[in-house]
Design goal:
Helix content is about 75%, strand content about 5%. The longest helix has about 90 residues. By secondary structure, the chain is α+β, with helices and mostly antiparallel strands. It has a 5-stranded antiparallel beta sheet with strand order 2-1-5-4-3. It folds into 2 domains: about 200 residues, Beta-Lactamase; about 240 residues, Helix Hairpins (Orthogonal Bundle). Helix 6 packs antiparallel against helix 7, helix 6 runs parallel beside helix 8 and helix 7 runs antiparallel to helix 8. It is rod-shaped.
């Protein structure tokens, strides 16, 4: 398996083509083997037909001897004479043995008649007559293959096949044979026919296979290049693959286009959310600065009021001696109190405006939180797509495994697709982690805005209380002023009683 994984898809498909060619060669060899067996069986049937005729002749003379028309010796002699005269396939003949291995009839080699031929061997050491006797012991028929001289040339040794049949009444074995060199010629003739046919079919099949290889490898290279670009983080999210095909590669390209479209939308959404968050953060910073400045001014004005009250208290303490100065101071305090009331009123308005801006910022933060949740949902869809792609690749690998050797290349393709889907899922998990961090930051900002809203409301309440206190001070200052006028008048009337004052 590791060796196969080192090969490219093209190399695997070419290897598959080589295996197919090797299988075709094996099929031709097997057909030659089957044809050889059929031709040999046909020769055996021909030999059996000749032996059946010889058996009929011998049986005829046996019946003549049984009926008394001939003696057994006469019947045997006439039967063997008839067998000597039989010829077929040119010069093929019939010979006869007994179970002891003695030649009792042979049309050509008369010197062998009456001789025991069990020890006779062919050039390869086969004791052919011994095998004939052995096979005749338990069977009515038998086959023996050996090498025999063909024609008058002693060096012309050719494979030969012989069939035997037993004639039980006389305890003899009838035999005949046929040279098989013609079978080899027929086999070579058929082999060249099959080889020529295979070559004629191989050329268009080779061209078709090359076309199929290119139709598979080219889209795969394009898809792989696009996947690598995206995996390395430098991919063009506007790029789309050709998904016009209706095969697995076309569907894979369509799924890739859908995936890239989702990623593109996700990136755009994240960019928009980040921009909105940045604007909201800037606005919140400005509002915080304004609130801090207004709080400082409010503190300063409150100090002024305290100073005025202190001066007013001091003037009241010395009213007996400084009645006119107290009246002037009371007027001054009244003016300061009026200005303080105006400042406090402005502070209240500014604090209310700050509160409204903080509410708007809270709404923007909630919108950001909703957007980040939508991003999380989109990431869930992408994760589901990646898991579905992984599952489809696993199913394709199982189907390819069922297809055996023919589907091994497609199993590798499916494995690469599953690997890319897993990497996509990991990338989506990283994006999900970033989105979770953004959501956490948005929640922190929302909490800060909520806290600032609470503090602003408290400051607004304190400012209202300060405004009410200043109004009361103005009323008191007016009363004091009236009283100072009265005191001044009384003092004028009682100039002689300064110690009383």
């Amino acid at each position: 398996m590791k060796l196969i994984q080192r090969l490219s898809i093209t190399q695997r498909l070419v290897t598959l083509l080589g295996i197919a060619a090797f299988g075709t060669a094996l099929m031709v060899a097997f057909m030659m083997f089957i044809l050889n067996g059929l031709l040999i069986d046909e020769e055996k049937r021909k030999l059996d037909a000749v032996l059946d005729s010889a058996h009929t002749i011998v049986n005829y003379y046996y019946e003549q001897a049984e009926s008394g028309d001939l003696t057994e010796e006469q019947a045997r002699q006439q039967a063997f004479n008839r067998l000597d005269d039989i010829r077929y396939e040119g010069s093929e003949y019939i010979f006869t043995l007994n179970r002891k291995g003695e030649m009792v009839q042979h049309p050509f080699t008369k010197s062998l008649v009456g001789e025991n031929v069990l020890s006779y061997e062919d050039p390869e050491g086969t004791q052919l007559f011994q095998e004939m006797v052995e096979k005749a012991r338990n069977n009515d028929r038998g086959t023996v293959e050996y090498i025999w001289q063909k024609g008058s040339d002693a060096n012309n040794l050719v494979p030969k096949i012989s069939r035997i049949r037993v004639f039980e009444p006389w305890n003899i074995i009838l035999g005949t044979g046929q040279y098989t060199d013609n079978i080899a010629a027929i086999l070579w003739q058929e082999f060249f026919k099959l080889a020529g046919l295979a070559l004629v079919l191989a050329v268009p099949l080779m061209l078709l296979f090359i076309f199929i290889i290119r139709s598979i490898t080219r889209p795969l290279k394009t898809i792989n290049s696009a996947m690598v670009d995206i995996a390395e983080g430098e991919g063009d999210l506007t790029r789309r693959l050709d998904d016009s095909g209706s095969d697995e590669l076309g569907r894979l390209a369509a799924s890739f286009n859908t995936f890239v479209h989702k990623i593109q939308q996700l990136v755009q959404s994240v960019q928009e959310s980040a921009h909105s968050e940045s604007e909201a953060a800037k606005k919140l910073t400005e509002l915080s600065s304004t609130s801090r400045r207004q709080s400082d001014e409010l503190s300063s004005q409150t100090g002024s009021v305290a100073t005025a009250i202190t001066e007013l208290s001091s003037s009241a303490a010395e009213v007996a001696e400084h009645a006119r100065q107290a009246a002037d101071s009371a007027n001054t305090a009244d003016e300061e109190a009026g200005r303080s009331a105006v400042i406090v009123r402005e502070s209240v308005n500014n604090i209310e405006a700050l509160t409204n801006e903080l509410k708007k910022a809270g709404e923007q933060a909630r919108l950001l939180q909703d957007g980040s949740e939508k991003i999380g949902n989109i990431l869930g869809v992408i994760v589901a797509i990646a898991e579905q792609t992984n599952l489809l690749a696993l199913n394709a690998a199982i189907e390819a495994a069922r297809a055996g050797e023919a589907g091994r290349g497609f199993a590798v393709v499916a494995d690469e697709v599953r690997t890319l889907a897993t990497r996509t899922q990991h990338s989506t998990d990283e994006i999900s982690g970033i989105v979770d961090s953004i959501q956490g930051a948005i929640k922190d900002v929302s909490q800060i805005i909520t806290d600032v809203e609470g503090r602003s409301a408290s400051t607004n309440e304190e400012a209202l209380k300060a405004e009410q206190a200043i109004s009361q001070i103005q009323e008191a200052v007016a009363n004091i002023s009236t009283m100072n006028v009265q005191i001044a008048s009384a003092t004028d009337e009682q100039e002689g009683r300064p110690g009383f004052v």
